[in-house]
Design goal:
Helix content is 7%, strand content 45%. With 326 residues, it is mainly beta. This is Aspartic peptidase domain-containing protein.
Length: 326
Amino acid sequence: MVRRYFRRCSTLDLHRLAPLFSPISCKLILLSGVDFDTGSSDLFLPGPHCDSSCENHQIYDPSASSASSDLGQTFNLQYGDNSTVSGEQYSDQVTIAGLIAKPQTLGVAYQYSPGFQISRFPADGLMGMAFESLSVYGAPPVFQNLISMGQINNPVFGVKLADDGSELYLGGVNRQLYKGEFTYVNVDQAAYWQVPMDAVTVSGQDVTGSVQTIIDTGTTLIVADDYTVEQFYNHIAGGQPFGQGFYSVPCNGIPTIGLVFGGTSFAISPETFKFATDPNDSTRCIGGLVSMEQDLGFWIIGDVFLRNVYTSFDVGGLRVGFAKLA
């Protein structure tokens, strides 16, 4: 199972090689956009035989591509929020900002669950940026394919997430978007981008010990186990359960929150920690750390944190680096 939690989608600007929500093409068929996701490894697009669940998404028709080939295998992708995609596997030539991956295995969907319908998922499809061992197709993800084909010399991609100016930089990092040096942590298992986190701090005080984490650009929130999340909010004055794993806090009373990786603490700003306003009390905000009943054995580190740092995903060195934003 590929896990997907509280999917984030937004239209992002085109920089350097590709944004996180970007046009791609299969051979000469231009598609309007895919969501780039470090929490999964497979590429899927809505196909010509997709039912009404794909309505208003731009369709990819493999019969219109001279490079496409039906692999004769179906697929079913299931994500952590219970969203699903099913269809047929194909091979085609995939181009991202002039970089060509061929042959590239991709899924041609004939059904999207509600989580991928246009009202909740404005991208047409999704491109996984994790490792091949996580692939349901059993095939190299696009970025690894680009590396093996020599399209990219430096097996690294950099990510900045923001309301404006978000960027996916393929083949390195964009030095204009961060300052200082990276703090690197090694990937423990090359499936997800799984790395250890030393601690979580509130007002400089540790509220957790070391835990395993998944660095996931496709998740909005930070997701953890029930017990630790409860302990976290106990350290925030006025923190109280809101329901379904969420907690509310006074909007004007959010303390300094830090995630510690590789011995360096990286702060989460109060603005990015505020997930939403409490509909029953405009002075209270829903916090960006949420619990799940099931203990996954790792935390999911999503955009609530990643919007505060510039992140380097080093495929060759099997490590993740964080740096302060410029």
